[in-house]
Amino acid sequence: MIFLPLQLCQSSELKFRIPKEAASSGEGVYRVSYGPSSGFPASNFTVDSSLINQLITISDVLPGTLYTFHLYFSNSTVHDKLIWTSDLPTTPDPPINLNVSILGGKVAEATWEPPKQGGQTGFKLSLVPLSEKDDTTPRNNYINHLTPFLLRDLTPGASYEVQLFSVFHGQDSSVFVTTNFTTKPNTPGRFIVWFRNETTLLVLWQPPYPSGIFDKYRVSISPEDALESELLVDKERDPPGPAQAAFYGLVPGRNYNISVQTVSDNQISEPTRAQYRTVPLPPVNVTYDPARLASYSFDVRWDPPTKPSEFDRYQVALGIRNTVRYLINKEEERVVTFDEELEPGLTYEVVVKTVSGNVASWPVTANITTRPLPVRITSTASEHVGEISVTWEPAKNSTQDSYRIKYSDMEAFNSGGSLLVVRNTSINLTSLLPGRNYSISVSAVSKKISSEPTVVYQPTKPSSPVIELLQPSESGGWNLTWKSDVTSRQDQYSVMYIRNDTRFLQEKIITRNWLVLDDLYPGAGYEIKVYAISFTLWSDPHSYFQTIRKSIFDC
After folding, report:
1. Are 461 and 385 within 8 A, CB to CB?
2. Of 135, 229, 465, 473, which is most buried, counting CB atoms within 10 Å of its CB?
3. PANTHER family per the record (predicted)?
4. Which of 8, 89, 1 is CA-nearest to residue 55?
């Protein structure tokens, strides 16, 4: 049997040559029969000897079919002598329904169906790289089985063309089916929050390693609160470096899911995911409870943020660097009592933050001063009219920067009193009304926070009375009258008169401003003193000297 190479011009034609050796039979009739019988000219056609070794065309043949040819010779002596036979395949039809499924960055799966008409003994799959940066070479794969067929060792993110032929006994289909696909690009590297505030998250991430092929990143955020919740970021260079994207208009303190993917053509990588929170809004109005402020403790209060913000607790501490922090749930009463290791009169910085997850707000601070300890008043005196001197000493282990003195006349109606602030530990109060009982309170002050007052009561020295008249009375005694300053107040008077020669002293305590002296010795001289008395405090005396005349009967 002689095999002749098949030459295909159209899928419905089969061309062949009868070898020269077949013409050695001489002159006669040559008849060609073939099967299957589909074709034109029909089987059992005759050829002239001149067509031996010439190209003969059989049209309308079946695709992908093995045709068997027989050549018979007849003349006057021989009838239908078989002188040549050959099996010749026709060109197959191409396969159909080619599809490529992406299984990852380096593997894809090709599936197809065989030709609808005719047979095939295998397939040829050509893989042609289309990406500029893909340095792999085209590959031809001869496949002797049906689908699926795995395409391996691909470049992540690269694009390829698949050309698929049917093969029948070494004959490729004259046309092929084709499809393009792109492999899944590599996943980006780890990423971090590069910057954040109450409404913004700026994320920074590393490119894939190995980088593979891709042209941009897709960055998305959920919940979709941002002004733009999905961003496409171009790859700036090769090899790629770190990239970044910012989301604006977010809710303070909210937890967001952020994913970064590489994009190559229509393929998107598996995401790199992370959760990040925006910074919650800080609390407001950090203050203390004045009613609970003491020397060794105080209560801190505050208000929640004034604008919408998500957070789950508050963090309260004395000073930013203090490791002792109080955590107060959002629903609990907003108060913290500090009562450990505090000293009277010292100022403490209280720091309050809102906390969402593990993200704290900017701190809000308030300076709170503990109440100083009360002073101890060591002495009070009124040595001069209209004046009171007060001396005190501060408590040990107490800090103060000044002292507040408040004083008022106990008998004055609706008097708010007077207020002084001094730095010394003594004061001389002046311009006071004589003969009044004054309430005096002294408080230690530290940063405008005063201690509990220490109160004393001290009367002022009354003004001295002025003797107006001393003259004999009709009853035989002496009338003594005096007057007092209108601003001075006294509740009684003391009148002392001393005989000059004997130094004999006599005293009378009265409440009126006159007195009849009826026991004076005629001819003697007397020193008369009048004192004003107010709250047991005596004024300076007003003195008067008088000689008592002898009567005419004593002469």
Report:
1. yes
2. 465
3. FIBRONECTIN TYPE-III DOMAIN-CONTAINING PROTEIN, TENASCIN
4. 8
